[in-house]
From TrEMBL:
The keyword Protease applies. The lineage of its organism: Bacteria, Pseudomonadati, Pseudomonadota, Gammaproteobacteria, Alteromonadales. Residues 134-336 form the Peptidase M24 domain. The keyword Transferase does not apply. Residues 2-126 form the Creatinase N-terminal domain. One of its GO terms (molecular function) is metalloexopeptidase activity. Keywords: Aminopeptidase, Hydrolase, Protease. Pfam families: Creatinase_N (PF01321), Peptidase_M24 (PF00557). This is Xaa-Pro aminopeptidase.
Length: 358
């Protein structure tokens, strides 16, 4: 909150109107929905309604919680009332719909409203030790859930059946739902970077792509593993080895101070020099925390220099239409001299096609 208040002068506003649920949770601890936070140099006001009022009182401290009567007072009217003494307001432009903001602006005609972008998101880039511990805890849940799910693999099982089992195993271990809709695909469908699990059944020799994550205290993990059911063909093994080599090339460069585009270039050099260069996925990774995809993004022309405490994914991939794809993804925390892995599940490729050791 103090770091946000330090941004008031540089943005030439007297108060920020925060609408993003993740940004509100980050600033004051409230984890519910249907809330708007107003932060000025003197105070912070959390506007909510009867559904979340008591929860807001329990989860926050040093914040004035306002219970808005939704039948008698619109959000715009409430903001006009509580912001009357602030002539210039900054608002999160990317977190209000056009229709919602047009209605609010009708009631803020006495104020000058300044659109701001990613003010709080930039503060969230560097994680403290408590945030890192939460992401590590989410990754541990995902690691254990994956190990249990793999023991259920058998020919004939469907993508959807396995995805449901993986989600269940994560939540059984304490995950707050799932980090995102689990991606679990077989055979040629693994070429869909964000495909949805369906009714396809597992057959001998199929590629298996699993992209998933758990949630702990609001913080997310994000991991991808690619396997083959049985013995890999030479082509499948070459795909896997190429992606693994690209990932290692990037990981070897990670440290505080390196530019994101340099990491992307390290991985892309490996992919570009391979026979699969036409099928390489764009970008290398992203920050992860209260949201699945957040700053910094690891891609070409990304100017951000990594800092100690950034938590990012490294996830190169190759996707060949009508054949299949391979992606490998790790969550890591950047340190001054390198990184620490948060995801620990083994990156083995071949899985036995009968019950046994995985």
């Amino acid at each position: 909150m103090a770091r946000l208040r330090a941004q008031l002068e540089s943005h030439q506003v007297q108060a920020f109107i925060i609408q993003s649920g993740e940004n509100i949770a980050y600033l004051c601890g409230f984890s519910g929905h249907g809330a708007t936070l107003v932060v000025s140099a003197e105070q912070a006001l959390l506007i909510t309604d009867y559904r979340y009022y008591l929860r807001a009182l329990e989860e926050t401290s040093g914040i004035e919680v306002i219970q808005r009567d939704r039948d008698r007072e619109s959000l715009g009217q409430c903001l006009a009332r509580v912001c009357a003494k602030h002539s210039v307001l900054g608002f999160e432009a990317e977190h209000f719909s056009v229709g919602q903001w047009q209605h609010i602006a009708e009631h803020l005609r006495a104020n000058t409203c300044v659109a701001t972008v990613q003010v709080v998101e930039r503060l969230r880039r560097v994680k403290d030790s408590q945030e890192i511990a939460c992401i590590r805890g989410a990754a541990e849940i995902a690691d254990a859930a994956l190990a249990d799910m793999l023991t259920l693999l058998e020919s004939g099982i469907t993508e959807r059946e396995l995805a449901i089992e993986l989600d269940y195993q994560m939540q059984r271990r304490g995950s707050q739902g799932v980090s995102f809709d689990t991606i679990l695909l077989f055979a040629e469908r693994t070429a869909l970077p964000h495909g949805e699990p369906g009714a396809k059944r597992l057959c001998e020799g199929d590629l298996i792509l699993i992209d998933f994550g758990a949630v702990r205290s609001g913080y997310r993990s994000d991991m991808t593993r690619t396997y083959v059911w049985g013995e890999p063909t030479s082509e499948q093994q070459a795909l896997f080895d190429t992606v693994a080599k690209a990932q290692q090339a990037a990981l070897q460069q990670v440290c505080s101070g390196i530019c994101c585009h340099e990491l992307n270039h390290a991985a892309q050099q490996v992919l570009a020099s391979s026979p699969y260069h036409r099928y390489a996925g764009e970008g290398l990774g992203h920050g992860v925390g209260l949201t699945l995809h957040e700053l910094p993004f690891i891609k070409a022309n990304a100017p951000y220099q990594l800092e100690s405490g950034n938590v990012i994914t490294i996830e190169p991939g190759i996707y060949i239409p009508n054949y299949g794809g391979v992606r490998l993804e790790e969550d890591i925390v950047v340190t001054e001299t390198g990184y620490q892995r948060l995801t620990q599940a083994p990156q083995q490729f071949a899985l036995r096609s009968e019950h046994g050791d995985y």
